[in-house]
User: Which sequence fits this backbone?
């Protein structure tokens, strides 16, 4: 045969996209009797510059072999170029807890949850291995891809902008602008945790066909809900491939009674589910929890139709951004205070709109069309009642915070976010009702048609 | 002696994503990507094709330990299986064998492109200088990811 080109030693930190799971890897181990075992592996995780982690799920023979002979060879592929690298690794330990295990477990569970497949892919452990050699296969272009790092100065500029915001809506705008302009990701959404800590609701988004304002996710359910519930970022390089992999496992191995569950829970009879802002052909996804003072404030999520769009460095930067925004949000909530204001006159409009309120979930329908529910629904109902009964159309955040009829003792924390959400839903769903800011902590309710308020039993 | 039935033969020759594992005498494993796995008429031996430029370690291992494992997977369904056995011989691929290998690689390209991999990146996966590795099949295992992985076939 022919002579072999010298293989290059490669630093694993220089080939980060090989460890994103976009293209399956292979692993070869050797049994005590000298028989090799080779199998495909969904993803090899990079732990640090000299260690990788392998998921312990279904690899009975691999697991056994590694116990008797700790040496393995692993192949990884760079998705952009197809370059293949061989890693000689030595098993060091199995982890069943800790940051690496939690990161891998959450990623696996989040993708499974996206498909309604809870408890199918239990991660038994992660095998941490030391990398002793990393070589590029002969015949490939030896020069590495230019690294796409985010300049630290730009991160600092975003950070400064977040410290300058004085209002919640400005903060959401700054977060989304940072994703689009500084990081180059134009499809992003901010969801906040509600007062009960059970749901996230979309309060701002950019780059999607529909804003999805008011759409909800139950914490702990679905891809976003699992990431939020575990307070762990989840980065998926190719959602479609991972879903196919999940289905393969389920189709071949699941007993008949382990059918794929239905998707998200059905909306209540009085409301309709608002769709999450979601790209129709999403391939890459990054969900980052927003954490402040030991609490989950919300999540920031990014999507792309390109596979492998989000790199591990991006995940770190977005994590910093999300947590700083969460801290800013917490501070803004504490600082909320507003002066009082007087009322205004109502307007005339040609045709009456029937506004129907269902107390069981505070959902509000306009002429039979679902608008909103929950706290935002309760706020709107209260505003419209006062408009109708007292002719008021100017309101303050403060009075709403003190209004017991809205019914939630913790509303003060989320009032401004709810008003933003309500304003967006009104903008999207009707032309005759809108809310406009009229000063710090004040807003004006515009009503361009007569209203008939109906309280459902 | 293990005998490959029609069903397994059909899957071996259509699974497309192929990887070969070997070991040196000291138990140090090595991987090489393959293509064109083909079961011989005796149903107990097979040929798999690898890039000769990348096969030095594999050939050395086969010469010393003689053990070989070949896993093949459908890139769309992830169904996969593994054959294990002993090395018989290595030889440059013939013209007829190269045609078989090219057809197999083309089919892999189509399947992998279907699941979203970049065709441009995939093309660099193989080279034109190919050798055939022949081996006796002694065991076969289901390798499809899931709790059934590793079950003997």
Assistant:
């Amino acid at each position: 045969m022919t002579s072999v080109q010298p293989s290059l030693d490669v630093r694993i930190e220089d080939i980060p996209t090989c460890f994103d799971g976009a293209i399956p890897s292979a692993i070869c181990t050797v049994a005590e009797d000298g028989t090799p075992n080779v199998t495909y592996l969904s993803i090899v995780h990079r732990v640090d510059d000299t260690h990788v982690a392998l998921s312990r799920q279904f690899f009975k023979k691999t697991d056994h072999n590694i116990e008797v002979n700790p040496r393995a060879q692993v192949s990884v592929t760079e998705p952009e170029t197809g370059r293949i690298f061989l890693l000689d690794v030595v098993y060091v330990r199995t982890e069943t807890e800790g940051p690496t295990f939690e990161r891998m477990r959450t990623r696996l569970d989040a993708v499974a949850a996206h498909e309604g497949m809870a408890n199918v892919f239990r991660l038994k452990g992660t095998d941490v291995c030391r990398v002793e050699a990393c070589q590029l296969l002969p015949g490939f272009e030896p020069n590495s891809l230019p690294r796409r790092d985010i300049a630290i100065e730009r991160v600092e500029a975003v950070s400064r902008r977040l410290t300058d915001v004085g209002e919640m809506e400005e903060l959401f705008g700054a977060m989304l602008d940072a994703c689009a302009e500084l990081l180059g990701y134009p499809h992003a959404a901010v969801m906040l945790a509600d007062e009960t800590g059970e749901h996230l609701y979309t309060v701002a988004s950019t780059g999607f066909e529909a804003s999805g304002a008011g759409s909800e996710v139950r914490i702990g359910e679905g891809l976003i809900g699992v990431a939020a519930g575990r307070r762990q970022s989840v980065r998926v390089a190719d959602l479609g491939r991972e879903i196919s992999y999940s289905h393969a496992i389920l189709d071949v191995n699941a007993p008949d009674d382990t059918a794929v569950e239905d998707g998200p829970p059905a909306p209540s009879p009085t409301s309709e589910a608002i769709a999450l802002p979601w790209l129709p052909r999403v391939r890459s996804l990054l969900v980052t929890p927003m954490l402040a003072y030991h609490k989950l404030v919300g999540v920031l999520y990014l999507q792309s139709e390109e596979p492998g769009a989000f790199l591990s460095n991006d995940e770190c930067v977005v994590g910093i951004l999300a947590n700083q925004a969460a801290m800013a949000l917490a501070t803004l909530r504490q600082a909320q205070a507003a002066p009082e204001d007087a009322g205004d006159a109502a307007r005339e409009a040609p045709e009456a709109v029937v506004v129907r309120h269902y107390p069981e979930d505070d959902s509000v329908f306009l002429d039979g069309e679902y608008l909103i529910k929950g706290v935002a629904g309760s706020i709107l109902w209260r505003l419209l009642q006062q408009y109708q009964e007292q002719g008021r159309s100017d309101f303050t955040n403060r009075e709403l915070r003190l209004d017991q009829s809205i019914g939630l003792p913790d509303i003060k924390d989320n009032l401004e976010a709810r008003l933003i959400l309500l304003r967006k839903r009104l903008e999207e769903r009707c032309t005759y009702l809108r809310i406009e800011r009229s000063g710090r902590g004040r807003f004006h309710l515009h009503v361009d048609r007569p209203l008939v308020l109906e309280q459902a039993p | 002696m293990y005998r490959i039935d029609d069903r397994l033969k059909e899957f071996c020759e259509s699974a497309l994503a192929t990887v070969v594992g070997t070991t040196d005498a000291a138990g140090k494993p090595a991987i090489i990507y393959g293509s064109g796995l083909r079961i011989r008429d005796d149903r107990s031996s097979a040929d798999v094709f690898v890039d000769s430029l990348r096969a030095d370690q594999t050939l050395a291992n086969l010469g010393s330990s003689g053990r070989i494992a070949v896993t093949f997977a459908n890139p769309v369904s992830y169904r996969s299986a593994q054959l294990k056995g002993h090395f018989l011989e290595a030889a440059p691929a013939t013209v007829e064998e190269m045609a078989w290998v090219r057809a197999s690689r083309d089919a892999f390209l189509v399947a992998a492109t279907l699941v979203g991999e970049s065709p441009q990146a995939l093309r660099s996966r193989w080279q034109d200088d190919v050798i055939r590795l022949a081996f006796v099949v002694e065991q076969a295992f289901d390798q499809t990811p899931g709790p059934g992985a590793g079950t003997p076939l």
Chain B touches chain A through 57 residues (CB under 8 Å).
